[in-house]
Write a structure and sequence with these properties.
The protein is about 45% helix and about 25% strand. The protein is of the alpha+beta class. The strands form two sheets. Strands 1, 3, 6, 8, 9, 10, 11 and 12 form an eight-stranded antiparallel β-sheet that branches. Strands 5-4-2-7 form a four-stranded antiparallel β-sheet, with no helix packed on it. The longest helix has about 35 residues, at about 110-140. The two termini are about 60 Å apart. The relative contact order is 0.18.
């Protein structure tokens, strides 16, 4: 066999092998195809935080994480001695206002005039103490020893005592000068204001017992028994398990006609089942969100949409954080 023939045979073998490789690759590409794109989302749930309008110390926590609570269940109890003290003050002011109204209706006697004077003197003494307390606290605040909140509380008490003194003074003047129609109306208004103050403090007292406003599962309990919590500080979080939905980030070329009101199937790996979901919310995520740039290929940019959907039918066992897969 000549060298030329041998060379041709080697070249043909190489070409044939390359052709076989290309054919096998093409067959594999078209036979197997590409893996389908997957869109992964997760289950989310509505939550609300339990908090109090008044600061206090945690006396008791009636639930723990994982407990299921119903509307009206007691969740936590706070101790707020300041609120109880304010209630005593409000009730005393209400009683005083009621007595003054009675005096205005019946006309002032000598004993009532002396009583009004004594009330005024008592209010004046309280005002002087409140004023001195405020001046001391103000100096401590200027020195950076106490917080602005404490200073504001003392200032508010000082102003309240000042108003109480002025009210007592006006009542004394009315008793001394005799009640007129306008005075009687003013006395009735003072009673109404005092009753309003009692109702306000009552609402604060009610805040010391926190009850569940919605049915759900306790997910987090933040303070421990004995700790102080401030106004509006969260005490615990409750997940409303009846309000579950799935959130997905979908590129616009993957929407495939998805719109508000449309339904689709999502795979739940935790149960190896599919769940039918209905879209109720769609919104583009703006330029800050993850997006696919294709201008370099002479095409266009693809934005990402946030899509939210709820299960069409209740799905037993579905919990927040579980994955949802759209194929």
């Amino acid at each position: 066999m000549s060298a030329t023939t041998q060379h041709k045979n080697i070249l043909l073998a190489i070409v044939g092998f390359a052709a076989v490789v290309v054919i096998v690759a093409l067959i594999g590409f078209f036979a197997l195809g590409r893996d389908p794109e997957l869109i992964q989302g997760q289950v989310e749930v509505s939550e609300y935080r339990v908090s109090s309008k008044v600061p206090g110390r945690i006396l008791e926590i009636r639930v723990k994480e994982g407990d299921y609570v119903k509307v009206g269940d007691t969740l936590a109890i706070l101790d707020a001695p300041e609120v109880r003290a304010k209630m005593e003050q409000a009730r005393s002011a209400e009683n005083a206002a009621a007595a003054q109204e009675e005096m205005a209706r019946n006309g002032a006697r000598e004993e009532q005039i002396r009583g009004a004077y004594n009330v005024m003197q008592q209010a004046k003494a309280g005002l002087e103490i409140a004023e001195k307390s405020y001046q001391r606290i103000q100096r401590l605040f200027d020195e950076g020893v106490i917080s602005a909140q404490k200073r504001d509380e003392v200032f508010a008490n000082y102003k309240a005592m000042e108003a109480q003194y002025k009210a007592a003074e006006s009542q004394y003047d009315m008793a001394r000068n005799g009640a007129r129609r306008e005075d009687k109306m003013a006395a009735a208004a003072l009673v109404g204001r005092a009753k309003g103050a009692v109702q306000e403090v009552n609402s604060y007292i009610n805040e010391t017992v926190q009850i569940a406003q919605m049915e759900g599962e306790v997910t987090d309990v933040f303070p421990k028994v004995g700790e102080l919590v401030g106004t509006g500080s969260p005490i615990m979080s409750i997940a409303v398990m009846s309000d579950l939905w799935g959130t997905f980030n979908v590129r616009e070329d993957q929407l495939d006609g998805m719109k508000v009101g449309s339904t689709f199937k999502a795979f739940v790996p935790a149960f190896d089942k599919e769940v039918e979901m209905k879209v109720y919310y769609m919104k583009d995520q703006g330029s800050y969100a993850v997006w696919k740039a294709t201008k370099a290929n002479g095409e266009y940019d693809l934005k990402t949409f946030e899509v939210k959907a709820r299960p069409v039918e209740p799905f037993e066992g579905l919990r927040p954080g579980m994955s949802l897969i759209i194929k």
